[in-house]
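Homework help thread (please don't just give me the answer)

Our assignment gives two proteins as sequence + structure token strings and asks us to describe the second one. The first is just a warm-up. Here they are:
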Amino acid sequence: MISIIITAYKEPSTIGKAIEQILKNNLTDYEILVTAPDNETLNVAKIYSKRYQFVRILKDEGKGKPAALNLAVNSARGDLLILTDGDVYVGGDSLGFLIKPFENPKIGAVSGNPVSLNSRKNRLGFWAYVLTSIASKRRLTALKLKRRFFCSGYLFAIKKSLFPKLPEELLSEDGFISNNVYKKGYNLSYSLKSKVYVKYPTTFDDWVIQKKRSAGGYNQIRKMTSVEMRSFKKESLGGFSLLRYVSNTLEFFWLIELFLARVYLWLVIYRDININKKSHKEIWKRVETTK
């Protein structure tokens, strides 16, 4: 059995589509668990739970995504978990491709492929296109060369037996879970066809909040596990190769701005984590423009 877990927080306008897109996938013997702390989101999910017996809702305590995942996994009936969010939606055939690599018993988790919904015709939309394209290419390369990489928190599948109890202070649970799969002696796979559609930030302030949360989270994981999965040095490699994503002069200048923004981002992360010693609650902030 497959347990599909959707974690959400104040997403009544998007949770319905997230559920409906899962229903369009041709899966058998599965359940959908929606977990959220707010009644607005849960009330929308209840519409589907009344219509379909395999849709269940859980009210978490609002302590963050790691705590919500711990709750949902404990309640899950399946031996294979698919994890996604309430503000994104999967493609109509994404989930079938996502679970196929588990035919290999050495595969412990499989990452989906985030695709930006933002228009490429503005700066932040172009940044989203470039960063998602780079992430996909790096996963494909790592898979080919049998190197370590990490799953995307927007969509991935994992054997339930490999899911660790998550510390509630985690900023990037996807990296922590991915590292645990490797520790248990299993490999990760990447499904390019398992598309999950994501709206990325449309303001620079929200862009910094989101990227600080994810990139800072990997710095946090490095301190917990001594495994470096992301760093400014790693993300700076192959700078000239990024020109392949540029199609006009304006995009060239946006690419330069992206590099400068990444420098600024890593300086902010270093300040907040190493100097100001900010906590998980201080760093994790809701990104409104992605809803």
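The one we have to describe:
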Amino acid sequence: MATATVASSPALEADRRIVLHHVSWETYERLLADDEERRVPRLTYDRGVLEIVSPSAEHEKDGHLVMVLVEIVAAFSSTRILNVGSTTYRRQDLARGFEADASFYIQHEPSVRDREHIDLDVDPPPDLVIETEVSRSAVDKLALFAQMGVPEVWRSSGRAVTILVLDGGSYRDADTSAALPMLTRHIVNGFLADGATRPRHEWIVGLSEWARTAQRPSAAAG
């Protein structure tokens, strides 16, 4: 029988987080099937541990800012990208599954472009996962992502992003995104800090102008 505990939380914790232990894979899949269209709460499953998170408004706002940044830069760099949001990714053979704050297919976009449902038994994992952490998860998310073969994770704490690239089965800090090489950690964090204070429409215009200008040298060289 599953037992529920509330994860320990810092003083400023706003997300609602519940952790269930000894949950079977069948129970996890039944919970997913009960409401396939839900965005929240988000479920993470790791070998019998089920974490259920209802993100705070601040969590969602920060995650959306990163997502918009990725999409705008991809658009102005003519990079094919598929935003699959908080799609459920799961592998029964690994007894693991997750729903990220945002996830993108970029290098593997052609492989899943026409998929109605993504099945990691046959499809590649997303090329980029965005994970906003305003509090500590009860699950080792990086180990879970690595086991499922996610090549790159952006871990956002507040409005600062760490770029992590899979290397030999574990993640290492990187200064530059592998999925979107025009983006460095310095550039990303600069725009996120700017987005925290500027009106959204001004921020989008500024980001778009930078992304357009950033492509000019390579275009001229071609």
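TA reply:
I won't write it for you, but here's a hint about the kind of observation we're looking for: Residues 1-13, 217-222 have pLDDT under 50 and may be disordered.
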